[in-house]
């Protein structure tokens, strides 16, 4: 019941029906996302004429002869894949955070904080370092899907392990969840460190930048590989909404409502693992999106997962694209890893949530 109580404003009673506000917010978030995507398409260290490309792409108002090859490559082959991948990853991380918080019935659950991202990183790093040796047969079999699938398996293992440790007799201990998440993340980090120690110079350069989070390596091939897994996870998430709403009342109440609780848990865990694993495989560690976005939206539109999940997808995509714009313009022409930007914003927000729940801050 702790999680259900956290939905209340200021620790009081949950407000009345806010479905109208939620629907309006989703519409506004969709418009905001499209606006940010267009802005991101024009922002960057290069002065490529994105507007000319967009006019040609959307309205055919510009002939191909008027477009320089450089502008076309920068906008359509570098920025556009980056924007699409960033939107997918932002949506995946935010929705995963909302699902985990509903599953554990606590707003402090987040893929990065409870070890899920660390497990995905372990699977991805193992593939990068061992893909040409021990995992060569697997890489030959799975081809471009090797990295996202191995990251998915790593996140799936850690999520099941975390849930098994934190849950006893149908009750999930928040303290145990957070402590177990720290322990699992530390173990995964130790194994990841051992793999990094085995890496060669080229792999080390790739892993160093990748570990801080980046969308710099976005390509259409990566979108095809990881994006398809993320889209499947995002498509599955809305079907969890009714069950997560019932689960917020407790597992016994959810059972009385006819919700298959164990099946809900299994599907939710696989969905989160797929979304986080595929995201980490191509972007590296990007933290705090999964805790910031759902918490902000609960304050605005309430806890109903029918609206919270799609709103989280839209706001998560928007915030990650904005963070990406900051990361590639603040130190232009160099690029700041996007994980640094999200951590700089998300860490203080996490402390605010924690202090607010303990009654230290009344904001």
From TrEMBL:
<keyword id="KW-0812">Transmembrane</keyword>
<feature type="transmembrane region" description="Helical">
    <location>
        <begin position="267"/>
        <end position="296"/>
    </location>
</feature>
<keyword id="KW-0472">Membrane</keyword>
<protein>
    <submittedName>
        <fullName>Iron ABC transporter</fullName>
    </submittedName>
</protein>
<feature type="transmembrane region" description="Helical">
    <location>
        <begin position="336"/>
        <end position="355"/>
    </location>
</feature>
<feature type="transmembrane region" description="Helical">
    <location>
        <begin position="149"/>
        <end position="166"/>
    </location>
</feature>
<dbReference type="GO" id="GO:0022857">
    <property type="term" value="F:transmembrane transporter activity"/>
</dbReference>
<dbReference type="GO" id="GO:0005886">
    <property type="term" value="C:plasma membrane"/>
</dbReference>
<keyword id="KW-0813">Transport</keyword>
<dbReference type="InterPro" id="IPR037294">
    <property type="entry name" value="ABC_BtuC-like"/>
</dbReference>
<feature type="transmembrane region" description="Helical">
    <location>
        <begin position="20"/>
        <end position="42"/>
    </location>
</feature>
<feature type="transmembrane region" description="Helical">
    <location>
        <begin position="308"/>
        <end position="330"/>
    </location>
</feature>
<dbReference type="GO" id="GO:0033214">
    <property type="term" value="P:siderophore-iron import into cell"/>
</dbReference>
<feature type="transmembrane region" description="Helical">
    <location>
        <begin position="178"/>
        <end position="199"/>
    </location>
</feature>
<keyword id="KW-1003">Cell membrane</keyword>
<feature type="transmembrane region" description="Helical">
    <location>
        <begin position="220"/>
        <end position="241"/>
    </location>
</feature>
<keyword id="KW-1133">Transmembrane helix</keyword>
<dbReference type="Pfam" id="PF01032">
    <property type="entry name" value="FecCD"/>
</dbReference>
<feature type="transmembrane region" description="Helical">
    <location>
        <begin position="116"/>
        <end position="142"/>
    </location>
</feature>
<comment type="similarity">
    <text>Belongs to the binding-protein-dependent transport system permease family. FecCD subfamily.</text>
</comment>
<feature type="transmembrane region" description="Helical">
    <location>
        <begin position="83"/>
        <end position="104"/>
    </location>
</feature>
<dbReference type="InterPro" id="IPR000522">
    <property type="entry name" value="ABC_transptr_permease_BtuC"/>
</dbReference>
